[in-house]
Amino acid sequence: MRLLSATGKHITIVLMQMKISNEGGKSNPESKSDPFIRQNVLMSAHTSLGTGGFADWAAWPSTSEQLREAMEFAHSRNVPVTYVGGGTNILVSDKGIRGLVIFSDHLTSCHSRGRLFCTQSGLSLDNAINTSIEMGLTGLELLGGLPGTVGGAIAGNAGIKEMTISDVLLYIDYMTPDGALHRMQNTGETFAYHHSSFPGDEQCFIIEAGFILNPTRKMAEARLKKEEALRRRTEHGHYRYPSAGCTFRNPVEGSAGRIIDNLGLKGKTVGGAQVSFSHANFIINPEGKATSSDIFELSRLIHETVFKETGIDLQREVRLIGDWDICNTKA
Ligand SMILES: Cc1cc2nc3c(=O)[nH]c(=O)nc-3n(C[C@H](O)[C@H](O)[C@H](O)COP(=O)(O)OP(=O)(O)OC[C@H]3O[C@@H](n4cnc5c(N)ncnc54)[C@H](O)[C@@H]3O)c2cc1C
């Protein structure tokens, strides 16, 4: 793209735009002619734990216009709206979700301009990292292998010990339930450990995010760094069984996994759910037979045991979504 600069000279801006497909083959609409809003959608097909009942309605918008239509659809029926990305950090009730679920995974365009890498929220974080490297930009590689979408990562400020996604985030474009579009610059105050509080928090759907990255010609080195992050996760057994990652946030006393492990809870089961042998803070669904209630009950048992034995009040990291009995949801 050639633009006239403030000094009257022509400058060339390299703008690379791509539409990328997330892998996965889930039961969502695949072509533009498919209706993008569907009734009675089984959520277990859309969560990494493989559990959860039916959502009354689900929408897969591919454009801001369709997203606005989905918001209007819910508003006109006076039903609640729930947002889901990759479903890798949520526990959906076996009773399902009342109202409309809006999935982000058809919003996958991205482009770069100079140091700025802009991506829609539904692109998987792993795909976003690969694409940014191919565009000659680095800075996200340490998050390699982190499951889920860019939007989900921002909503929970996902990350590892060395970095969180907000470290390189410049702005978020989001839509409020009235269909209005907004931009929020990242001032650093919105994000904390595994937490974000952008305006309206869960009322807002993140559409796009902009990251400030570093230009590089050493793309092979960046690819290697990203693959190394993925390899470490594989070695630690992250992908061996269905899970939603860490069940609890790390308390000030240290690693939640170590605390749970020290109490001998690895391998503990409730129904089909089990405390992982590789990572005590992961609850897994090893044979695909667990219900969300099994997983919830096991998390409650862990919480009770840790509190009784150490006095530490672990806080849940995995988000409970859908029709849970509110009085019963304390971890
Ligand atoms: C094996 C494994 C390892 C993991 N390791 C890590 C790790 O190292 N560090 C870490 O932080 N997490 C980790 N996780 C948890 C999870 O991968 C991350 O939290 C991820 O960023 C969630 O993204 P998602 O798209 O799946 O979000 P979802 O699970 O779909 O949603 C999570 C929350 O984000 C909200 N949300 C999603 N998309 C949007 C949107 N577009 N707009 C507004 N709100 C939205 C949802 O409403 C929900 O409240 C791990 C999970 C697994 C299964």
UniProtKB/TrEMBL annotation:
<keyword id="KW-0131">Cell cycle</keyword>
<comment type="function">
    <text>Cell wall formation.</text>
</comment>
<dbReference type="InterPro" id="IPR036318">
    <property type="entry name" value="FAD-bd_PCMH-like_sf"/>
</dbReference>
<keyword id="KW-0961">Cell wall biogenesis/degradation</keyword>
<dbReference type="GO" id="GO:0005829">
    <property type="term" value="C:cytosol"/>
</dbReference>
<dbReference type="Pfam" id="PF01565">
    <property type="entry name" value="FAD_binding_4"/>
</dbReference>
<keyword id="KW-0560">Oxidoreductase</keyword>
<dbReference type="InterPro" id="IPR011601">
    <property type="entry name" value="MurB_C"/>
</dbReference>
<dbReference type="GO" id="GO:0008762">
    <property type="term" value="F:UDP-N-acetylmuramate dehydrogenase activity"/>
</dbReference>
<keyword id="KW-0133">Cell shape</keyword>
<dbReference type="InterPro" id="IPR016166">
    <property type="entry name" value="FAD-bd_PCMH"/>
</dbReference>
<keyword id="KW-0573">Peptidoglycan synthesis</keyword>
<comment type="pathway">
    <text>Cell wall biogenesis; peptidoglycan biosynthesis.</text>
</comment>
<keyword id="KW-0274">FAD</keyword>
<keyword id="KW-0963">Cytoplasm</keyword>
<dbReference type="InterPro" id="IPR016167">
    <property type="entry name" value="FAD-bd_PCMH_sub1"/>
</dbReference>
<dbReference type="InterPro" id="IPR006094">
    <property type="entry name" value="Oxid_FAD_bind_N"/>
</dbReference>
<dbReference type="GO" id="GO:0009252">
    <property type="term" value="P:peptidoglycan biosynthetic process"/>
</dbReference>
<keyword id="KW-0132">Cell division</keyword>
<dbReference type="InterPro" id="IPR003170">
    <property type="entry name" value="MurB"/>
</dbReference>
<dbReference type="InterPro" id="IPR036635">
    <property type="entry name" value="MurB_C_sf"/>
</dbReference>
<dbReference type="InterPro" id="IPR016169">
    <property type="entry name" value="FAD-bd_PCMH_sub2"/>
</dbReference>
<dbReference type="GO" id="GO:0051301">
    <property type="term" value="P:cell division"/>
</dbReference>
<dbReference type="GO" id="GO:0071949">
    <property type="term" value="F:FAD binding"/>
</dbReference>
<dbReference type="GO" id="GO:0008360">
    <property type="term" value="P:regulation of cell shape"/>
</dbReference>
<comment type="similarity">
    <text>Belongs to the MurB family.</text>
</comment>
<feature type="active site" description="Proton donor">
    <location>
        <position position="246"/>
    </location>
</feature>
<feature type="domain" description="FAD-binding PCMH-type">
    <location>
        <begin position="50"/>
        <end position="216"/>
    </location>
</feature>
<dbReference type="Pfam" id="PF02873">
    <property type="entry name" value="MurB_C"/>
</dbReference>
<protein>
    <recommendedName>
        <fullName>UDP-N-acetylenolpyruvoylglucosamine reductase</fullName>
        <ecNumber>1.3.1.98</ecNumber>
    </recommendedName>
</protein>
<dbReference type="GO" id="GO:0071555">
    <property type="term" value="P:cell wall organization"/>
</dbReference>
<keyword id="KW-0521">NADP</keyword>
<feature type="active site">
    <location>
        <position position="317"/>
    </location>
</feature>
<keyword id="KW-0285">Flavoprotein</keyword>
